[in-house]
């Protein structure tokens, strides 16, 4: 396909920035018609929007009762036509015919609808275009003009570029009032049902915690330990039932520990003064800064261009791209969120059928590289810092960035290879892919040279990576390196007050600080040692062999993830396993890496936030959960094989002694 960059110079795209334009380019299919060719007839389904690259097109109404055709308009280069049927959903109301030989860019209705939802500025521009054309066509179409303009504008949520739905509703219905459902109606009945369910679950939780208290008293446990375990049990049930916000539940952990006098406030809330909390803050700011620029999109295009243009090569390319970008964009959820629109564009650029083996395989290779390889780098995901914070203090202090990487490689390498092979075997595709290097070149041309914001992001990212890698030399805590990167982004105007409020995941920071503080409280009260003594007799069958024990750790977190979200599951898993590691003569970092790897199961879609984000972000157009369930089940086996492969290397490195 020939790529003409003039396509995106059309006025209708003036509201899109360079990154959105680069992403938009592969959406179009170029078609050529000779003079006198009918592009579509009046009454045809409205399935495409056309933009004129060169040539002229006339639009007219078909003749009725022997009258001559009624010419409505003539369009030339940089004009578009065919949008009315796409916006209304009705059949074509006109016939379009070329006057001269034409080069047209065609955009499908499906992608057109997606673009209007993703780019509110574009929706408003099309509203203005349609209004002007309807006014120009004929006066009797004014009612239709007003109706369509309102329907499109309502979908354009105000973000600094347009009106909000609420504002437009008030403008159309200034005297409208909100009518609430009658108490005797169905809404009240549903509300009562939800209340009854909530009360029942609260009652079940209270009963379960009371019974647990009697059991723990019978075992002779200390009051502080009983209170902490009651808090954990109640939180686990709340997380499982999804009764309240998971962040609110997490904040209740240290608060409840203080109120029940199981620990002191200084210990319970120490997570918010821990250096790991500030490290997460700096890393989150770095992720927010990169998300605002086209840096990731540019890097992905460069990597894709340098791999073979076939299914195996591109599958490998996207998996490696994700792994390479992991330390650059230090948030697994952010990487997947940034990758999802690019994945949709890739599928359509390659003309992959919906939910075909190729589209599923490419999606799963992206999940592997951009999501599941996070544990390879210390800054690959926020939960890595949680594991670091839960290690014994002396070990956490002596864990520089490169040491974490060297310990993770023996586990990550076999996992990556086996996972990629599983993707290729489960989702084979032999047909050649339609990859056009000129398309990638055109997209890079649209992106242009590095912008000032991208340069600032590169500076901040480079500073943080160099600071992490040289920590053993300068002995400056990684948290302060990350905060300096935050300062670079803020001083460089990449981040401002608004983006700091919206771009940083403050909910997770609350959860992280609460979990870390509660973990410190568990260690300070001696609960972890008590649990270790309690569990050792029960785990004698797996504690006779170090390999069997580590495999049991993988199965343990795999089962925990069926009832707990990933952060509390890792908290419970790490705190209960660490004392046992010392008894087994295993460095706790080995168990921590296994917990991180095995916690990303997605047997149920909502178990894995990265997978669920990709599934939801693509509207299941590329794959559905039924197609990936076999790979999800195989994921657990791959984790176990990877543990077996890593053990000999860990023995040589002294992690197993």
Automatic annotation (TrEMBL):
It comes from Heliomicrobium undosum. It comes from the Bacteria. Keywords: Membrane, Transmembrane, Transmembrane helix. GO terms for molecular function: DNA-binding transcription factor activity; transmembrane transporter activity. This is Cyclic nucleotide-binding domain-containing protein. Residues 12-116 form the Cyclic nucleotide-binding domain. PROSITE patterns: CNMP_BINDING_3 (PS50042). It is a multi-pass membrane protein.
């Amino acid at each position: 396909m020939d790529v003409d960059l003039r396509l995106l110079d059309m006025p209708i795209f003036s509201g899109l920035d360079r990154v959105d334009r680069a992403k938009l380019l592969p959406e179009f299919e170029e078609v050529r018609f000779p003079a006198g060719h009918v592009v579509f007839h009046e009454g045809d389904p409205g399935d495409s929007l056309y933009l004129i690259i060169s040539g002229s097109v006339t639009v007219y109404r078909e003749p009725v009762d022997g009258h001559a055709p009624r010419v409505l308009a003539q369009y030339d280069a940089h004009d578009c036509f065919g949008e009315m049927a796409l916006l209304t959903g009705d059949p074509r109301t006109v016939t379009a015919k070329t006057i001269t030989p034409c080069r047209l860019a065609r955009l499908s209705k499906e992608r057109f609808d997606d673009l209007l939802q993703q780019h509110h500025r574009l929706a408003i521009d099309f509203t203005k275009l349609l209004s002007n054309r309807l006014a120009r066509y004929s006066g009797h179409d004014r009612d239709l003009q007003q109706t369509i303009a309102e329907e499109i504008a309502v979908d354009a949520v105000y973000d600094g570029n347009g009106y909000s739905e609420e504002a437009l509703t008030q403008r159309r219905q200034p005297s409208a009032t909100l009518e609430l459902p009658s108490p005797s109606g169905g809404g009240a009945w549903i509300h009562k049902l939800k209340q009854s369910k909530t009360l029942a679950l609260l009652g079940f939780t209270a009963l379960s915690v009371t019974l647990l208290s009697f059991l723990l008293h019978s075992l002779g446990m200390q009051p502080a330990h009983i209170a902490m375990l009651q808090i954990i049990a109640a939180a686990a049930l709340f997380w499982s039932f999804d009764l309240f916000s998971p962040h609110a539940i997490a904040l209740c952990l240290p608060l409840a520990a203080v109120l029940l006098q199981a620990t002191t406030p200084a210990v319970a809330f120490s997570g918010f003064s821990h250096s790991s909390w500030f490290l997460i803050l700096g890393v989150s700011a770095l992720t927010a800064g990169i998300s605002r620029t086209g840096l990731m999109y540019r890097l992905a295009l460069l990597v894709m261009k340098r791999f073979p243009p076939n299914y195996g090569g591109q599958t490998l390319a996207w998996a490696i791209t994700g792994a390479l970008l992991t330390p650059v964009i230090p948030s697994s959820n952010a990487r997947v969120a940034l990758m999802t629109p690019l994945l949709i564009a890739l599928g359509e650029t390659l003309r992959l059928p919906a939910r075909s083996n190729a589209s599923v395989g490419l999606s799963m290779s992206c999940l592997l590289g951009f999501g599941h390889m996070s544990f390879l780098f210390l800054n690959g995901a926020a939960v890595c810092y949680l594991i670091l914070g839960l290690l014994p203090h002396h070990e956490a202090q002596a864990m520089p960035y490169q040491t974490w990487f060297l310990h993770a490689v023996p586990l990550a390498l076999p996992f990556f290879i086996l996972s990629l092979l599983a993707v290729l075997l489960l989702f084979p595709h032999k047909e050649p892919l339609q990859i056009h290097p000129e398309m990638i070149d055109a997209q890079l041309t649209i992106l242009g040279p590095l912008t000032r914001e991208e340069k600032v992001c590169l500076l901040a990212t480079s500073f943080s990576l160099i600071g992490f890698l040289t920590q053993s030399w300068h002995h400056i805590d990684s948290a302060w390196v990350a905060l300096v990167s935050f300062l670079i982004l803020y001083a460089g105007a990449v981040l401002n007050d608004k983006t700091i409020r919206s771009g940083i995941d403050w909910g997770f920071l609350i959860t992280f600080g609460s979990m870390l503080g509660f973990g410190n409280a568990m260690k300070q009260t001696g609960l972890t040692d008590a649990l270790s003594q309690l569990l050792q007799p029960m785990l004698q069958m797996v504690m006779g062999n170090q390999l069997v024990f580590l495999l049991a750790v993988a199965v343990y977190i795999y089962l925990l993830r069926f009832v707990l979200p990933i952060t509390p599951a890792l908290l419970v898993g790490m705190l209960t396993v660490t004392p046992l590691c010392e008894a087994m003569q295993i460095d706790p970092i080995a168990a921590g890496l296994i917990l991180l790897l095995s916690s990303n199961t997605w047997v149920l879609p909502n178990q894995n936030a990265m997978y669920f984000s990709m599934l939801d972000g693509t509207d299941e157009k590329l794959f559905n959960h039924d197609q990936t369930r076999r790979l999800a089940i195989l994921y657990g086996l791959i984790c176990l094989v990877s543990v077996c492969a890593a053990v000999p290397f860990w023995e040589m490195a002294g992690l197993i002694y």
